[in-house]
Automatic annotation (TrEMBL), chains A, B:
Residues 1-21 are annotated as: Disordered. InterPro entries: Acyl_CoA_acyltransferase, Diverse_Substrate_AcTransf, GNAT_dom. This is GNAT domain. Residues 83-234 form the N-acetyltransferase domain. GO terms for molecular function: N-acetyltransferase activity. The keyword Aminoacyl-tRNA synthetase does not apply. SUPFAM superfamilies: Acyl-CoA N-acyltransferases (Nat). Residues 1-17 have a biased composition (Pro residues).
Length: 234, 234
């Protein structure tokens, strides 16, 4: 709705900068980061597929819900492959959700104030309905596992995937997920958090550098897979 | 001992190629690849330091025998950080070394025939004397641990370090160590073996490609460590 024009000013004054002309109504979005459970596999599967599309690597995507279920959740969190889920909701999260009260990791609950509401066209696909009828939406995930530095003689975490759905980007949610992993690494006395980035993904590189990471230009990833790997079997 | 000169031939014949003029005595060197045990930590520590020197990265080397002991060997082999040790000996290995008979990994025993004996100036530092007085020498190691591909929904192995001492190089021992990891990956139904290489180490890149690995040129390693990591603690 257009505002009525103000009466003419007695003397011309310069127009304020554009951002000051806006007087946004904040839309508060509540966020929770928690450990994934086996019931999250359908969401994890869809998120991995969206990531493969974004990375133009769908020809390498062969994961199924069944293969994810059989390979994740076989070890206690942080000792092997571990997934954090990012949930968003227009309503506050109950801090003391009993099924999420884990001694190893207390869910991180926060909120952001946005100028505009988030339009989520896939909300039905990523909706979780609680026992009390509350609705939350899966917005992203991070999958990581321990690695080891022989120079430090310390474990660290390697982040295999960090993904936030398109409509939730540029709100700090990716930073929240990666920060949660870094915080857990510090808590456990670990020495490093590492991951890889595609060299053409300049936005991601800028984002990681702003978070304090160094991009190591000299190292190249080597991969032995498929028939070349199978040749080493008996 | 020089052979007596043969009687002059009735007609001159061309000299055979140089390699055919040599008639080397083969020096058989026996090799064993086995899982490391906590008693190998002093060797592992020295090997990691030699690797740091080779990679010109001694400023990053802070490992001690104590820190290695407290972070390795806390989980069953292959479920977390795992070390294979390469041993060499002028004498055959006893296949049925009772203390090495592990259900998860049977030591790999083989031999190579060399034209010249290996001159190991550091043999005293890397000597293991068996209960029967037999002497073997630690020649190298590989440290690896499980990683995970979300696209395959399968675990793999990530090789953090592969190192063969200078005097044992160019005899196929590095290939034996990496092959042992690849073979174990196939045995466990894993999808990939991955590692990183410095882009200036052209010999290593050639070696890895000959083993069937692909060098992925597009990916860059990101690392969050030191104060930048600690900042994520509370």
């Amino acid at each position: 709705m257009a505002a009525a024009a103000p009466p003419p000013a007695p003397t011309p004054t310069p127009a304020p900068p554009v951002e000051h002309q806006l007087n946004p109504t904040p839309y508060t979005t509540f966020v929770r980061i928690r450990l994934a459970t086996p019931s999250d596999v359908p969401f994890i599967h869809k998120l991995i597929h969206q990531m493969a599309v974004f990375e133009k690597l769908t020809h390498l995507f062969t994961a199924t819900q069944e293969s994810l279920s059989s390979t994740l959740f076989n070890s206690p969190p942080f000792t092997s492959f571990t997934v954090f889920i990012l949930e968003v909701s227009p309503n506050p999260f109950l801090i003391a959700a009993p099924h999420l009260t884990q001694t190893l990791f207390s869910p991180i609950v926060t909120h952001v104030n946005l100028d505009l509401p988030i339009e989520d066209d896939d909300s039905e696909e990523f909706k979780i309905v609680g026992a009390d009828g509350s609705e939350v939406y899966v917005g992203g995930f991070v999958l990581f596992f321990p690695n080891y530095s022989t120079f430090l003689a310390k474990p660290g975490f390697y982040v295999e995937d960090l993904f936030v759905r398109e409509c939730y980007r540029r709100r700090g949610f990716g930073k929240m997920l990666l920060s949660a992993v870094a915080k857990q690494a510090v808590k456990m006395g670990y020495g490093r958090v590492e991951w890889v980035v595609l060299d053409w993904n300049v936005n991601a590189i800028k984002f990681y550098e702003e978070m304090g990471a160094k991009v190591l230009q000299e190292w190249r990833l080597c991969r032995l897979t498929g028939d070349a790997l199978q040749a080493y079997g008996d």
